[in-house]
Amino acid sequence: MKHYMVIFLLGLTGLIARGQSITPICSFNNFTNGPERPLGELTMGPDGNWYSTSIFGGSNNDGTVFELTTNDVLTTLVSFAGTNGANPYAGLTLGPDGSLYGVAAAGGNNNDGTIFRVTTNGILTTLVEFDSVNGSGPEAALTLGPDGNFYGTTKFGGPLSRIVGGRGDGTVFQMMTNGTLTTLVTFTNVNGALPDGSLTVGPDGNLYGTTSEGGGPGSGAGYGTVFRMTTNGVFTRLAVFNANGEIGPNAGLTLGPDNNFYGTTEAEGGSVSNGTIFMVTTNGVLTSIFTFDGTNGTGSEGNLALGPDGNLYGTTSGGGSNDDGTVFKITTNGLLTTLANFNGTNGDGPAAGLTLGPDGNFYGTTGNGGSGGNGVVYRLDLPPEFLEAPTSQSIVIGNGATLNATAFGTVPFSYQWLSNGVPIDEATNSQLAIEEFVTNTQYQVVISNIYGNATSSVATLTAVAATPAVSLDANGDVILSLATSTNFESRLYMATNLTPPVVWQSIYTNVGGGIWQFTDTNAAAMNSGRFYLLSTP
Predict the structure, then answer these.
(1) C-alpha distance from residue 80 to each of 43, 46, 100, 177, 223 (Å)
(2) Mean of pLDDT values over 305-332
(3) Is the peptide bond preceding residue 501 cis, with omega within 30 degrees of 0?
(4) Residue range 191-209: average pLDDT?
(5) Is there a smaller number of Cβ atoms within 10 Å at the N or the C end of the chain?
């Protein structure tokens, strides 16, 4: 004897004030032979501490390499003394050997600058001394290339460049970890002049960079360029800046989530001469996406940082509510939000961009301000922002479900899950586990920290029927195991054949819903095929 069943379940359907702040975690002073005026970005070492340089300070006032531990202990690792380098403008680059590599803009035997390696315990080795012919005055951080070599620029010097005040237009170089230096490109004004920013590895494995001047047809002409270079020195000028738009990028490029590059220009650029933010494609299409107006900042000098939310974060050296500079966020389509303003006490005039720490916070330096007046290391404190929000799902009744939330911002976070707008007791983790789902429900989560909170959009879990289980008992009666939404009445119908017109007979009504069983005690006595239909009246 065969029993048949047809099941049908009628489906059921069913921004916040935010604050940011800048917290100085270390202020530099001028009376302890410590660091003064850090202009470079922070770099996290293999030990989890921050490392960078200062242009002045130290026992000789020629600048320093310093370490800042996670519990905010500041240590001067190196005091430059002229012969081993002086006045480092740029931050440091972590090498494959766990050491930190950097450049000093002056010093060395020729006073044209140096490249150095420093260990996390302060052992410094001078790797290269520039001599004007191979470059002079490096001001940008080194870039670790895809081949394991370092690449960088010198702002002046070079064997074939035009002479400006006795110094050339700069170079691009390659350096092996043992200090072997190769000049790859000499700038000659037409292809660019005076590179001031670091190089960036593109998605194609080539190096991309900017020059602060050059690109014009003659000596001394031009407002800067964007270029591409292979690791063996094949150079292509991609774009030229102009006086009516962008002038003189002092920073390097940042690869965005769309595989385009983003950068900034100095204060003279833009329609109101406060600087711009631009986008450039890998084939050289240059577009200005934002112009600063002073109130939201003036003159961005540091690299942009890509956030985990796909937005770009940066600083301006001036402007804002106190004319001490700002921290901002900008989308790839040019929507800028000022996140915080420097006010002297928390720093003044940042020349460096931001660095994302492993705790999800951005960190940076300013060359001025703070309690000692000689700059600070600061943390940017942000309210939560969703990187992953709970999403709607269709769940088989009786099964479990899991909802997840991931946030970006200043930790620690607290979580509170809501069910149909009502807080769920003890649901205070980033993940909500539902052991046995029985009815349509709308879920949200509120993520909070001391700087604000964010509420997710509604995620609706929709109940769907499981494939019903059918069995026979010892008497030959049919046992139906069913699952329906709670708080909704369900009705079970039976027919003995499906030949039109089908006659459906109501045989049971379930009011409570959930997981339930029905035994058709007439099935064995009828000794015929039976069809079942489940519906919400």
Answers:
(1) 19, 23, 15, 21, 34
(2) 96
(3) yes
(4) 96
(5) C
